[in-house]
């Protein structure tokens, strides 16, 4: 396919200093909020002492205000202590120090103002903030010292200016993929339906495994998400490698090749989801008010998948054995994700293995919404939320840090 055009931003990208400060403050605040969400999840899973809800409150609203004030005070304290203007605090090292000071102030404020907040949860909060700060501030600065908030926003700005290229390329690939087939794009629907029918026959008739809902809708509810995830993972490994000739000849944002694979997976998802809706309706499961949560669950899965894709698209150039390794891991994940079985059937001592998989938790929430007409357990989604967006940022930073060297690995 010939690239019709590549549009570059015509003006230099820059942000006023006040907006950069606000951006850094917002980033640090997002990190501590993510650390708090993850700490609540840890407190529920690794409980010592009295459980949450007995004497301890899990998520008091006042703690969010304490975190916001703590980060603001941390910037002022760092500026005064270092005798430097605020613009000098915009480096990754200074931003990380400000984050740690803000976390310490938040913990002290919570101990003073929130006696009902678990001290163990505060410990988890501090440790989680340290880990997330390392992943989101220190790590991108180490792999690419020239990567700053301004350059990161410039990459997104440049990508937005080339959105038409992504749309044209995606339309071409979708049309050409099924142009020579007899039934065309309907293969997207027929393949998962055939797989679900065979497994439904095997599990419900031959193995006599009982479910509280028909197996075909139970399995399809997980399969529509798993197909989006697996197609992104396997396609992401070849996203750059299969287009290296074009990449060497045309200057365009390289992440478009990765987003193209994800876009194809999303098109397939639309058709498989439509098939799931029809099959569910035939079995007595109709759309309900809880479907309002579906865009949020889909966003979580997209963020997690895209983060892994950014890593794999670069690593597949450096390590050619990565494809075989990922195939084995994906085969294991297929059985560790509750696609064929409900989580409740897993013995309690081994259930944590499945709960470590963010995709499994998203699948479980998807079933709650579509099959049981109930809101997803938001506490169980704290971990996927933090994991998805952390991995997305780290993966994109890794991808951009190695973008200029991609041709050297061929």
Rg to the nearest angstrom? Answer: 24 Å
| Structural classification | mainly alpha
Unreliable sequence segments: 1-6, 8-12
Silhouette: globular
Number of strands: 0
Quote the average pLDDT.
82
What does this structure look like?
This is Transport permease protein. Residues 183-402 form the ABC transmembrane type-2 domain. The chain crosses the membrane at residues 22-40, 61-81, 96-115, 122-140, 182-203, 215-244, 256-279, 291-313, 325-343, 378-399. One of its GO terms (biological process) is lipopolysaccharide transport. GO terms for molecular function: ABC-type transporter activity. With 410 residues, the protein is an all-alpha fold. The chain folds into two domains: 17-143, no CATH class; 162-409, no CATH class. It contains 15 helices and no strands. Helix content is 69%, strand content 0%. Helix 1 crosses helix 15 and helix 2 packs across helix 3. The model is unreliable at 1-6 and 8-12 (pLDDT under 50).
Attribute tags:
single chain, 410 residues, mainly alpha, 69% helix, disordered N terminus
Topology:
Elements: H1 17-45, H2 61-82, H3 92-113, H4 119-143, H5 149-161, H6 163-177, H7 187-206, H8 215-237, H9 244-249, H10 255-282, H11 294-318, H12 322-336, H13 351-355, H14 358-370, H15 382-401
Helix pairs in contact: 1-2, 1-3, 1-4, 1-15, 2-3, 3-4, 4-15, 6-10, 7-8, 7-10, 8-10, 8-11, 8-12, 8-14, 10-11, 11-14, 11-15, 14-15
Transmembrane segments: 22-40, 61-81, 96-115, 122-140, 182-203, 215-244, 256-279, 291-313, 325-343, 378-399
GO molecular function: ABC-type transporter activity
Keywords: Cell inner membrane, Cell membrane, Membrane, Transmembrane, Transmembrane helix, Transport
